[in-house]
Design a protein that fits this description.
Elements (H helix, E strand, L loop, with lengths): L15 H11 L3 E7 L5 E7 L7 H4 L1 E4 L13 E6 L5 E2 L7 E9 L11 H15 L4 E13 L1 E6 L4 E6 L35 H13 L4 E6 L6 E6 L2 E2 H21 L3 E3 L13 E9 L2 E2 L12 H21 L5 H4 L9 E6 L4 E5 L11 E3 L8 H17 L17 H4 L9 H10 L2 H4 L6 H20 L4 H7 L3
Helix pairs in contact: 3-5, 3-8, 4-5, 5-8, 6-8, 6-10, 10-12
Length: about 475
């Protein structure tokens, strides 16, 4: 008779005492303290487990905030981290038994939450939701796509600039002398859903999913995505706003670390390849009140409630500003280009993937009713992006913003006289930043975002990213203009 082995599920960790007990039970030797900078990168430092005590959860650990992107100036650099015991996870990638603790950032003088701590923004958004009385919980389900390459090289200096990515799975390698070349490389735009051997990353993703589950990241499905050259998607089970943002950070860390361990490289860059699909982060979201899905109405369009339609109205109205957080890189707008499959049209529709907002209709269950906002991509800071989307949706509800009629047609096939009336997302990061400057009052409600954070974000993005790209010749300009 077959023996069924059942993995013992870890008990939830809620208190500092629970964390210490977990460390002893799992033989932890190092404790990795992690937090997120303003741009969205996970930062960390480690302490021996012997330095972990209940006092550390109260007193915190100091660090230099002036060395972190978007944080403090050098004359006010001292900051402290307070670990959140509920985030304790054993790192499945570390050879030395290591516990990960996600931390909140505090000002050491006032002992108040640091206004530019992205995780604090997410938590304030959840608190504001409750204070409005509209709902008690918001649920989030992002679909963060990524590429797995075998080689990447890039350079940018005074006299040259180039990039080169390669993949054994890339359609451009069908004729390469690989001794032997075994074929089975997904054709451009045909990576969705062939079985192995064409899907060469099946086992890679399956093993990666096991690592994710070890780290407490619940996964529902994984598969190859549309593009050639190793585009993948692993879908996490939905969760609450801050918890899901924590999971996105863990997800990205595990994908990149697991790839490196297998002598591959993973990227969440939205558009690393020309001429094939980019990587998005379609974000499913819904509001609930004490266990009841507020987005469900069996009599409504696509079984959506009036409240859900107002939420959609808020997202559509504020999308130009939202994209400064949800599609926050210059590369994001290589993906969001009209005329292709990107969700650039600011309309909503059931089933229709050419709309910015899609209402999935896979199920008629009240629990499954949600909306999917499609313009975001995985280069975003998930804490800020989720919080901004929630604030836009709540503004729609509070001001009863009508999203207009749905568009259940192929928007790319509309006659020109009709297409010109369809609003579209901004065409560049600079356009989105200008929209955020002009439209951010909805983000300030309840103290969720602050003027200081928004100003810092806009300044950082313009100086470090927009100007960086604008000042440098593009390789394609030599092709177009060298002989003028």
């Amino acid at each position: 008779m077959a023996v069924v082995r059942q993995r013992v599920r870890e008990q939830p960790v809620a208190t500092p005492e629970d964390v210490l007990e977990l460390c002893e039970r799992r033989g932890i030797q190092m404790v990795d303290l992690r937090f997120t900078d303003l741009v969205g990168g996970w930062q960390h430092f480690s302490v021996p487990v012997e330095e972990l005590s209940e006092d550390l959860f109260v007193e915190g650990v100091g660090f230099d905030g002036s060395s972190i992107r978007g944080f403090q100036d050098i004359h006010e650099s001292d900051m402290i981290l307070l670990p959140d015991p509920r985030t304790a996870r054993v790192d499945p990638m570390a050879k030395t038994p290591t516990l990960i603790l996600v931390c909140d950032v505090y000002d050491p003088i006032t002992r108040e939450r640091y206004s530019r701590d992205p995780r604090g923004v997410a938590q304030r958004a959840e608190d504001y939701l409750v204070r409005t009385g509209i709902a008690t919980t918001s649920y989030w389900g992002p679909e963060a796509e990524f590429f797995v390459f075998d080689d990447v090289r890039f350079e940018q200096n005074v006299h040259c600039g180039y990039y080169f990515v390669d993949s054994a799975e890339g359609a451009w390698n069908t004729g390469r002398d690989e001794r032997p070349n075994l074929g089975y490389k997904p054709r451009y735009k045909e990576g969705y859903f062939p079985v192995p051997p064409t899907d060469s990353l099946q086992e890679f993703r399956s093993q990666l999913v096991r690592k994710m589950r070890e780290a407490g990241v619940e996964v529902e499905v994984h598969h190859h995505e549309v593009a050639t050259a190793g585009q993948c998607e692993i879908d996490m089970r939905f969760s609450t706003l801050t918890e899901m943002a924590d999971r996105v950070q863990m997800y990205k860390y595990l994908v990149k670390t697991f790839a490196r361990e297998h002598l591959k490289t993973a990227t969440f860059m939205p558009k690393p390849l020309f001429g094939d699909n980019g990587s998005g982060m379609h974000t499913h979201q819904s509001l609930w009140y004490e266990g009841r899905n507020l987005f469900y109405d069996p009599r409504g369009y696509a079984q959506l409630s009036e409240l859900a339609l107002y939420y959609i109205g808020g997202l559509l109205k504020h999308s130009p500003a939202l994209l400064a957080f949800c599609a926050p890189t210059t590369n994001s707008y290589r993906r969001l280009v009209p005329g292709y499959e990107a969700p650039v049209n600011l309309v909503y529709s059931q089933r229709n993937r050419s709309a910015a907002i899609r209402i999935p209709v896979y199920s008629t269950s009240p629990k499954s009713k949600r909306i999917e906002y499609r313009p975001p991509d995985p280069s975003c800071n998930p804490y800020l992006a989720f919080a901004a989307m929630l604030m836009a949706g709540l503004d729609g509800i509070l001001n009863r913003i009508d999203p207009g009629p749905p568009m259940d047609v192929d928007l790319y096939e509309l006659p020109p006289e009709e297409a010109k009336h369809v609003r579209q997302v901004p065409g560049s990061l600079e356009e989105s930043l200008r929209a955020l400057e002009e439209d951010h009052e909805f983000l300030l409600r309840g103290g969720v975002f602050t003027e200081d954070l928004i100003e810092t974000w806009i300044t950082y993005k313009r100086k470090r990213e927009v100007d960086y790209i604008r000042l440098r010749p593009h390789p394609s300009e030599f092709y177009l203009y060298y002989d003028v």
